[in-house]
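Incident log, structure service

09:12 report received: a user says their structure output differs between two submissions of the same chain.
09:20 pulled the input from the user's history:
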Amino acid sequence: MKTYIFKVVVEPDEDVWTAYCPALLRQGASTWGVTKEEALSNIEEVVRMVAESLLEDGEPLPEGPTDEVQVSDAPSVAVTIQDPTSTTVTLTAVG
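09:34 re-ran on a clean worker, output below:
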């Protein structure tokens, strides 16, 4: 079992919020929401779908760069404490 922690970015964009995962952007990991919370929920779903799709296709999940994805061979739990001024959060996907 490996634990992957992917960095995601959630940013305001006119009247919506956009969200993307830099490590999976080439695979289409981007979305939006009317609220910041909706965009975050949507990007969590997108990251999971992209990761599952890569694994189903026999492709490896990215393991770097280290500022965009962290990998652990041990089971882990990621807890995000969001600074109100920050638009960057982390999500955990287990693979």
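09:41 both user submissions now match this output. Likely a transient worker issue. Closing.
09:42 reviewer note: Residues 31 and 43 are 6 Å apart (CA to CA). Helices lie at 36-56.
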